[in-house]
Amino acid sequence: MTITGPAPAISSSPRQVARRSVGWIVVGAIAILVAAIGFLTTGGHGPGVALDASNAAPAGAKALAEVLRQQGVDVTSASSLAQVRDLAPGDGTILVYDPQGYLDEGRFTELQTHAATLVVVDPGFAALHALAPDVHNAGAAAGNGILTADCPVAAANRAQTIEPTVKSPTLRVTSGAAPATGCFSTGNGGFAFVSSTANGTTLHLVGSPSLLDNEGVVRAGNAALALNLLGEHPSLVWYLPTLRDVAANGPPDLNALTPGWVTPLVLLLVVVVIAAAVWRGRRFGPLVVENLPVVVRSGETMEGRARLYQRSSARLRALDSIRIGTIGRLGAAVGLPSTASVWEVCDTVAALTGTDRSVVRDLLVDAQPRTDAQLVSLSDRLARLESATLNAVNPANDRPTGRMEP
What we know:
It is built from 15 helices and 11 strands. By secondary structure, it is α/β, with parallel strands linked by helices.
């Protein structure tokens, strides 16, 4: 038959493709809209690294660093203690902000030797214990608002007032060997700023990072305090520690924990195992080549299986093997198909031989031998049942069959 006319199109038309893609287009448009809103909300900047001198986001400190540069201060950034050693001239200022606690007490103590003024923002336990043992963390401020200096520190008096954020960290001063001065009391026994000296180095402890970041430096006298603290010397190293400053003091390796006698003992054991393997392997002699496959007579197989049944006292398993063969031969003898069930064979055999059905079912299915004598008795009864069935089917065949082979 000849088909005329245009063939149907197999590929989808542009309209069909566009209809199926409407959902994905809507999802993409929503994603672009959300990204645009986030970009406009943050002013095109992510949060970045807190108090980073090159970060223009609200949490950064680029505004303060740029003002210091305009006033003639040489501001350089460092991300490791090795860079601080190379950059710090020894008579300048070092600002340290370590919120992750990468520095230990020894590294804070070393920083004192590289600066004339050390400014630590939000100091942790290691910094306070190493630099100012008489100063402790006092938790967050109870409230917020403008705080008055009320202390003899020159940088604090020039600023007069500051305004930290809500729940800013505060510091508590106790009596100690190195006198410390607290400024800008928060009303809970703490101060937002503490000044001290240690080993000839001027130490300034700033409780809240919000006094220096881009968002908080414009409030009250925050900028004045920050500029007076960091602009005291012509050079400033802006140090934000990283993972490179973490001291390599992990647990000892396996070699350090292993006693010296273990390695020679292991080598000796390896040699002994190899010698034992060679010694035992030579005792078996050379391999014997045997042609395969090996033909095994059925009698040997039957006798081997019988010995296994006897050794494991598997009388029921042996009887089931005999029953399977008997049921198959009985079904073929009475003319039943191979798909006939056991119960059909039992009923047919019982009807032909005139035996009670329960007796036949017990013999072919239910009876369980407890001893070897019971197993032999049941085997003989199965042979007699098979012989009686053959005689009933063919009365002329009166030859006894003898005991059934499995």
